[in-house]
């Protein structure tokens, strides 16, 4: 629902991220029973164990944030499946041009919003117009 509010323009992306952060923080405090306690999240065993939660916590705490600058190319014909090796996967050359789905395609620089989310569907739709 929050994404819909941002996509519709009801909230800016920055406002949507702020709301999501408040929700996530509140949920985390409840899950880890930290509300009103002096124990710091870094001392929790669950955040010390290797895995997705630990990786998320490290990214969350990072001052560098998410990767926001990407080079993308496409869309391409699906072919026989995900195991097909497409020409751009053989050798990266940002100046190269390939035959994509219906037209030639080139590498494009994409900068994501603060969330770091790269929506390939929106990218490929834009490329086909």
User: What is the domain total for the residues?
Assistant: 2
- Counted by DSSP, the helix tally is 5
Low-pLDDT runs = none
**Quaternary status of these chains?**
single chain
Identify the strand order in the major beta sheet: 1-4
Percent of residues in helical segments? 25-40%
H/E order of the elements?
A: HHHEHEEEH
Count of strand segments: 4
Radius of gyration: 20 Å
Class by SSE composition = alpha+beta
Strand fraction: 5-15%
Average pLDDT across residues? 77
- Separation of termini? 27 Å
Major pleated sheet:
2 strands, antiparallel
Overview of the structural elements:
This protein has 129 residues and is of the alpha+beta class. The protein folds into two domains: 2-61, no CATH class; 69-128, no CATH class. It is built from five helices and four strands; from the N terminus they run H-H-H-E-H-E-E-E-H. A two-stranded antiparallel ribbon has the order 1-4. A two-stranded antiparallel sheet has the order 2-3. Strand 2 and strand 3 form a beta hairpin. The chain is extended, with a radius of gyration of 20 Å. The model has no long low-confidence stretch (mean pLDDT 77).
Give a brief description:
This protein is 37% helix and 11% strand. It has helices at residues 2-7, 13-31, 52-61, 87-90, 120-128, and strands spanning 69-72, 97-99, 104-106, 108-111.
Give keywords:
alpha+beta, 5 helices, 4 strands, extended, 37% helix, two-stranded antiparallel sheet, 129 residues
SSE layout and pairings?
Blueprint: H1 2-7, H2 13-31, H3 52-61, E1 69-72, H4 87-90, E2 97-99, E3 104-106, E4 108-111, H5 120-128
Antiparallel strand pairs: 1-4, 2-3
